[in-house]
Structures are given as structure tokens and as C-alpha cells.
Design brief:
The protein is elongated. It is built from 8 helices and 10 strands. By secondary structure, it is an alpha+beta fold. The longest helix is centred in the middle third of the chain and has 24 residues.
Length: about 250
């Protein structure tokens, strides 16, 4: 399966009716990009014979679930579900037919939403915020209309990151973080101009813009930049505490 996926240059894998167990190594390599649909309302009834088990249990409702594939059987974060009523006199075949119809409605919608989320400004801002708030003593605060994050040890704590959503006439959604200065900024832009650019207003102070509206953003790389920028403005005692915790 992996050879076919690579040949197709696919970014995501959707499993629909795929009945084989995938190896942990394969699942790990495709973490966050491997989606499955299952004919029950997970976590109820993972595995096979879901219709029979629901009917025999006397359930009045069943359904289907789209989820990211995890380490366990039909495990992983749930992305969406549709309930389907179990009617008096339902057989395995009749319930199967109605749940199959629900699957055909649910899976394309969830799949489309999921694969396009990284171009959604709201999702990007939320993702950056999630990573920024993992750092010690951080508060979210907008500045000049841009979402920002600052060290919150004092009311006047310094900002270490912003998300620019096409601000100042720029046609980009980007993370703005501090660098060591103009020389590092210039070197980054020269090395990878498709990723880095000199942002308006903040650029002369040595900040760098990292484009987030591009395919396959490395969020661990983004987390590293947030930590680096945070360390440039955080008090020394707070940095020492963070290093101790790490």
C-alpha cells in the first residue's frame, strides 16, 4: 500500500472498507494523515460485526464514525459521527444499508474539511496558539489586529510571536517570530525564500515571517521557532525554570 501511495504522491490516506490491520510503523509514518470510517459510534463496537452486536444489545441507535487511525483497533481521535436509528424489526442487512448511506454522506464531508484545514486562517491561528500556550507563563493578546502571544510575567510582558493574516498588504498567512538580528533574517530568506520573508513593520527589528499557508507545514519546526523567540524575551529565571522542566 505504501508504494502505491508514494507513487501517487498522496498527502493523505482514506480507508473505506479496508479490513486489514496496518503495522504500527506504517501508522506512525502517516500519523495525522490516515483517516478511517467505521460502522459504529465509536468507542462503541470497535472491530467486526458491529450491526449484529448493536441489534443483539437492544440498542436504539447506531451510526458511523470517521477518525484518525491510532495505535489500537479502530482507535484514534474522532473527527465526526452520524447517528442512525435502529428500527423495530431491523436486520443486519437493513441496518447495514442505512449506515452505508450515512457513511457516503459523512466521509467525503469530513475528509474535505480535514485536508483543507491547514489553509483555514482560523485553524492556523488556533494551532499556533496551542503551541505557544505550551510555553511557560504565556498569554494570548491581539496587537494592531493581529493575534499575538507574550510572556505574561508582568502586565507589560513582551511579545514573542504574532500571526499575520494578510496584514499590511501581504498575500500570506505567516508566523512572525524574533531572530538574533538582521544577519540571521537575511540568511534565512536567502536559503529558503519560499518559506521565509521579511515582514512589513516588524522586519527592520529583525523579526522573520514564516509562511504557514503552504502544504506540509512542519509543526515541530514551528514549535521550535516559538520556543526560540520566547527565550529571547522571557526573564532569565523563567528560562532556567523551563530548561529544568525540559
Amino acid at each position: 500500500i505504501e508504494a502505491s501511495v508514494k507513487e501517487a504522491k498522496a498527502d493523505f490516506i482514506a480507508l473505506d472498507g479496508y479490513m486489514r490491520i496496518l503495522s504500527p510503523e506504517f501508522v506512525g509514518r502517516w500519523e495525522g494523515r490516515l483517516l478511517n470510517i467505521h460502522p459504529s459510534l465509536l468507542p462503541e463496537y470497535p472491530g467486526l460485526d458491529t450491526y449484529r452486536r448493536a441489534i443483539e444489545a437492544g440498542d436504539t441507535v447506531s451510526g458511523c464514525t470517521v477518525h484518525l487511525v491510532g495505535d489500537g483497533l479502530d482507535d484514534g481521535p474522532i473527527l465526526g459521527q452520524t447517528e442512525v436509528a435502529i428500527l423495530p424489526g431491523d436486520t443486519i442487512e437493513s441496518l447495514d444499508a442505512r449506515i452505508l448511506f450515512a457513511e457516503h454522506q459523512l466521509f467525503p464531508r469530513i475528509l474535505a474539511d480535514y485536508v483543507s484545514r491547514e489553509s483555514d486562517p482560523d485553524w492556523i491561528v488556533a494551532k499556533v496558539g496551542e503551541l505557544a500556550m505550551e510555553l511557560p507563563e504565556v498569554a494570548a493578546k491581539s496587537s494592531h489586529g493581529a493575534p499575538g502571544w507574550r510572556v505574561a510575567t508582568t502586565k507589560s510582558g513582551k511579545f514573542f510571536a504574532y500571526v499575520s493574516v494578510r496584514h499590511h498588504g501581504e498575500d500570506a498567512i505567516a508566523l512572525l517570530v524574533k531572530t538574533s538580528g538582521i544577519d540571521e533574517q537575511a540568511a534565512l530568506i536567502e536559503a529558503e525564500p519560499d518559506i521565509y520573508y521579511r515582514p512589513a513593520y516588524y522586519g527592520p527589528s529583525g523579526w522573520i515571517a514564516i509562511r504557514l499557508d503552504r502544504p506540509n507545514v512542519d509543526w515541530e519546526h514551528i514549535a521550535g521557532w516559538l520556543r526560540k523567540s520566547w527565550s529571547m524575551v522571557a526573564p532569565i529565571k523563567l528560562q532556567a525554570l523551563a530548561d529544568f522542566i525540559d
